[in-house]
Amino acid sequence: MTGEEILEFLPRVAAVGAQVEANLRGWVQRLRDRRVTWARIGAALGMTRQSTWERFSGEE
């Protein structure tokens, strides 16, 4: 691919990434609604409990 072709492709990749992130957040929220711990969710995602909480909790 040329540089121009890659630049034209980037917005599509970003849109798919945003869809995946939204879907992942939805699944994490389902697990939290079922009282699954941040540690277990993080383990499933290959992340620490703290990193998982920071990414998905919505709290600052």
Task: Walk me through this protein's architecture.
The protein is mainly alpha-helical and 60 residues long. The radius of gyration is 15 Å and the shape is elongated. It starts with a helix and ends with a helix.
Q: Whole-number average pLDDT?
A: 96
Which radius of gyration do the C-alpha atoms yield?
Answer: 15 Å
Low-confidence stretches: none
What percentage of amino acids are in beta strands?
A: under 5%
Task: Tell me the distance between the termini.
Answer: 41 Å
- Helical content, roughly? over 70%
Task: State the helix count.
Answer: 3
* Overall form: elongated
Main sheet: strands, sense, barrel: none
Instruction: Count every beta strand, where a strand is a DSSP E run of 2 or more residues.
Output: 0
Structural class comes to: mainly alpha
Secondary-structure element series:
HHH
Describe what is shown at a glance.
The protein is mostly helical and 60 residues long.
Quick tags:
single chain, 60 residues, mainly alpha, 3 helices, 78% helix, elongated
Q: How are the SSEs ordered, and which strands pair?
A:
Elements: H1 3-33, H2 38-45, H3 49-56
Helix pairs in contact: 2-3
